[in-house]
Automatic annotation (TrEMBL):
InterPro entries attached to this UniProt entry: Ski3/TTC37, TPR-like_helical_dom_sf, TPR_rpt
GO cellular component terms, A-Z: Ski complex
Keywords tagged on the record: Coiled coil, Repeat, TPR repeat
GO biological process, one term: RNA catabolic process
Biological source species: Mionectes macconnelli (McConnell's flycatcher)
Coiled-coil ranges from the UniProt annotation: 3-39
Pfam families to which the protein is assigned, alphabetical: TPR_16, TPR_19
PROSITE patterns: TPR, TPR_REGION
Protein name: TTC37 protein
Gene name in the database record: Ttc37
Length: 669
């Protein structure tokens, strides 16, 4: 076959393909290849025809042969791209990407439009495969090409926006290079917008800030972007909100952070992050109740802020609301979905605070929960303070051997840590080894004198050690006073001060003040409440006694606060108000239906009211619960007599006289 015939055969093959006569085309090509086995066009036409005849393997082989012959010719590469793009071709995406890369190389110096088309296709392919770095790098080349071509600002703006759209899901992958390219795209898009200020530009800025807030190491860029947006949109609260939450979550409570909190509240007094910021400021200023109030309010509006939950728990611990603090710690842990980077730091802080708080609740179940919390802390074993908390948890569970083992290890390995000595003190105190406890608490105080709890425990050690140390003003009293001064919310310190002033100093007025303060700090402390009421009565100050009792009974749910109902009922009984006495004593019995003395008092109230039958039932119930209550048995007989049941009355009088021969009321009866 001459050169002329080869050309003719190739023309016939081209015409056959144009006419969709693919088999005919193959015949012509094969004829050419018999003569010239390295004919580029013949191999390309075979690829085309085989592809149309659904013979992909043959087509692929033909194109590859052509490429082998002429690597920098376009036709075979284009054909291979068309073949791989067919829906029937699966598992060839990697090969197709390589083909597109080659086409970009071949088109670069020639057809710019085709270069852009292939670039778009390649980006789409990478995006489907979630290869975000390749998406970013390829799209950036496209933008660069358009810039070199002199594209308008508006077109470039749309291209940067498209790049943001393509990479919006990449933030989950945490690839630093992709992240930087995405942030660069945001910067270009924000700076190339036409309408500034405008709604689209505003939304773009918002997305940029939201994106930056996902990357903890981009703190400086986030702060700058928020400030830039605030300068452009001074009435918008969004950038300020993000900045405030950033400061909260980073634990940065600088002057700048505090300034942001107050600016946000000036803009919107009901703004969640702003109120949270104000709460943190209160916590810093040791205004703990205000801190709890503000943080609680702020978190009702912005509840996915683990750091704020931690600050709330911290404030609740400061005012000894331990159970509330544990709930806040649990909320913080829920909000910490991904415990990585700074979140891991917060998780460890929250778990530690939770464990410390559970120790303060001081029951075995709380101790068990504390141990579980400590087990979740990363690198917990290297921290002596966490070991000391674990030791206290074992002590609260009654596991003395485990607690002692930790204590001994800590004293050897960390003798300079206050918690090592405090744990030793708690163990000796629980075993009533008061002299060793004294030594340990003094050592703890020497290392950290500002801890109220150490002073309180040293005071208690002196209180129980001996009569001498209890009475010595420089011992128990001094330590209780120091504890109360260091922690003005420590109700138990005021309770023990009350005990000292009442039992040792004989100063009822001062004792009453201490008990009242202790009860105000902890309304569940019945001992302090009872002591405050009793001393008020002894001091003839019924108004104070009643105000305490009224406050407790107003808040009490049914079946609770027996002591308050009983005290007020007895007051009404003594002051000739039997109906009120009946109501209060019934409420006291709802809390404790087996209190014989309370039944006796209720009987007395009914009797004074003239309700003889119900009085009889109450006295009878009292004597059933406690057969030693002679007065109730006597009242039962007297009421039987009043109600005309003389035989019953005589029998009961005789029963009394059998056990108590000279009981005058029974003899008279």
């Amino acid at each position: 076959m001459s050169n002329k015939e080869v050309k003719a055969a190739l023309k016939s093959a081209r015409d056959a393909i144009r006419n969709k006569e693919y088999k005919e085309a193959l015949k012509h090509c094969k004829a050419v290849l018999k003569q010239e086995k390295n004919n580029y066009n013949a191999w390309v036409f075979i690829g085309l025809a085989a592809a149309e005849l659904e013979q992909p393997d043959q087509a692929k082989g033909a194109y590859k042969k052509a490429i082998e012959l002429e690597p920098n010719q376009l036709l075979a590469w284009q054909g291979l791209a068309n073949l791989y793009e067919k829906p029937s071709q699966t598992d060839v995406k990697g090969d197709l990407a390589d083909v597109y890369q080659k086409l970009l190389e071949l088109y670069k110096s020639g057809d710019k439009q085709k270069w852009c088309d292939v670039c778009n296709k390649l980006v789409e392919l990478y995006h489907q495969e979630k290869k975000y770095l390749e998406v970013a790098e390829t799209w950036q080349k496209l933008i660069q090409m358009r810039q070199e071509e002199g594209a308008e600002k508006a077109e470039l703006h749309q291209l940067w926006k498209k790049m943001i759209q393509l990479l919006k899901d990449s933030t989950r992958n945490q690839d630093n290079k992709t992240e930087q390219l995405l942030l660069t795209a945001f910067e270009h898009a924000v700076n190339s917008a036409d309408t500034v200020p405008g709604e689209d530009h505003q939304n773009l800025y918002k997305d940029f800030i939201q994106c930056l807030s996902k990357f903890p190491h981009e703190a400086a860029r986030l702060e700058k972007t928020c400030n830039d947006m605030m300068a452009l949109y001074p009435t918008m609260s969004y950038p300020l909100e993000v900045l405030c939450l950033h400061f909260v979550n980073s634990g940065n409570l600088s002057e700048e952070a505090l300034h942001c909190f107050s600016r946000l509240l000036e803009m919107d007094a009901s703004n969640g992050p702003g109120i949270i910021g104000f709460g943190i400021k209160c916590l810093q200023d040791k205004k703990y109740k205000e801190a709890v109030k503000s943080l609680t309010e702020g978190l009702q509006k912005t509840n996915q802020c683990p750091a704020a939950w931690h600050y709330l728990a911290e404030a609740q611990v400061k005012i000894h609301k331990y159970r509330n603090a544990v709930l806040s710690c649990n909320q913080a842990l829920e909000a910490l979905e991904i415990p990585e980077g700074p979140n891991l730091r917060w998780k460890n802080l929250v778990l530690r605070l939770k464990a410390e708080t559970l120790i303060k609740i001081a029951d075995p179940d709380a101790a068990e929960e504390a141990i579980k919390a400590l087990e979740q802390i990363v690198d917990a074993n290297s921290d002596p303070v966490i070991s000391a908390i674990r030791g206290q948890a074992y002590l609260n569970k009654g596991l003395m051997d485990e607690a002692s083992k930790i204590s001994q290890e800590l004293l050897l390995s960390h003798p300079d840590v206050a918690e090592s000595h405090a744990l030793d003190g708690y163990i000796h105190y629980s075993q009533k080894n008061y002299e060793q406890a004294e030594r340990s608490f003094l050592n703890a105080i020497e290392r950290r004198a500002e801890t109220a709890e150490y002073h309180q425990y040293l005071g208690l050690t002196y209180w129980f050690m001996s009569d001498e140390t209890k009475r010595d003003k420089g011992k128990a009293l001094t330590q209780f006073l120091k504890a109360a001064k260091l922690d003005s919310y420590l109700g138990s310190a005021f309770f023990y001060l009350g005990n000292y002033y009442r039992d040792i100093a004989g100063d009822k007025s001062r004792a009453r003040g201490c008990y009242k303060k202790a009860f105000e700090l902890d309304e569940t402390d019945e001992e302090s409440g009872t002591a405050a009421v009793d001393l008020s009565v002894e001091l003839g100050d019924m108004d104070t006694a009643l105000s305490i009792l009224n406050e407790v009974t107003e808040k009490a749910s049914p079946g609770t606060a027996k002591w308050a109902w009983l005290h007020r009922g007895l007051y009404y009984l003594r002051s000739g108000q039997p109906s009120q006495a009946v109501a209060d004593l019934q409420a006291a019995l709802r809390a404790d239906p087996k209190d014989s003395n309370c039944w006796e008092s209720l009987g007395e109230a009914y009797l004074n009211r003239g309700s003889y039958s119900t009085a009889l039932k109450s006295f009878r119930r009292a004597s059933e619960l406690n057969p030693g209550l002679i007065y109730s048995i006597y009242r039962t007989a007297a009421l039987e007599q009043i109600l005309g049941k003389y035989e019953n009355a005589i029998a009961i009088y005789q029963q009394i006289l059998k056990t108590t021969e000279d009981y005058v009321p029974a003899l008279k009866g």
